[in-house]
Design goal:
- The protein is about 85% helix and about 0% strand.
- The relative contact order is 0.26.
- It is globular.
- The chain has one domain.
- About 5% of the residues have low confidence.
- α2 crosses α5.
Length: about 190
């Protein structure tokens, strides 16, 4: 496999990561660079890891995950999105970075990387050597996610505290898009 194909696949897979990172960036109240690095590394590692996992599981797992992967992604994104919307309506000036708590970061990382599992499975079908493509996909996701968090803060300066509501709505919209796409294709 050439290097361009996994780069393009990585860009495609990273669009959810970018949107979620953008939402995270809008809610970051301090330590923007630290937040961007943590989110980027977690999203990149999960994208690469899920690609590897999908490849390892191959065809035997396809039937099992295909029945509910869209519901899982939707629920994870909807829960985090609803929490962000709730926080957007709070008037507290308290500085917290709830998005950097372990569980929300892991949930977001998992929710944005479920499609990478399917890509890994497809690589198994194609009998592709997986290490280099998975690494490239992870690096692309890391770079795009970093850019998303950094860009999100710019949006917040334009829109103020209500951007948390917008960020939550974005996460829910991504989850709904995943859900409806799978339900209408199936």
């Amino acid at each position: 496999m050439d290097l361009i194909t996994p780069i393009l696949i990585g860009i495609g897979l990273s669009m959810d990561c970018f949107a979620v990172s953008l939402a995270v960036g809008t809610t970051t109240k301090s330590k923007l660079l630290y937040t961007a690095l943590i989110i980027a590394l977690c999203f990149g590692i999960f994208q690469a890891g899920m690609t590897l996992l999908g490849w390892a599981l191959g065809t035997g797992f396809t039937g099992f995950i295909a029945g509910f992967d869209h519901w899982l992604a939707f629920l994870l994104l909807a829960i985090i999105g609803a929490k962000m919307i709730h926080e957007g309506f709070e008037t507290s000036d308290e500085e917290t970075i709830s998005t950097l708590q372990f569980v929300p970061v892991m949930v977001l990382s998992l929710a944005t990387s479920i499609d990478a599992l399917a890509v890994g499975i497809s690589f198994a079908f194609l009998q592709v050597s997986i290490l280099v493509p998975a690494l490239i996909i992870g690096i692309v996701a890391c770079i795009i996610s970093f850019g998303g968090v950094m860009s999100g803060m710019q949006l917040k300066s334009l829109l103020g505290n209500r951007i948390e509501i917008v960020g939550g709505l974005i996460l829910i919209a991504i989850g709904l898009n995943i859900l409806f796409t799978h339900l209408t294709v199936s």
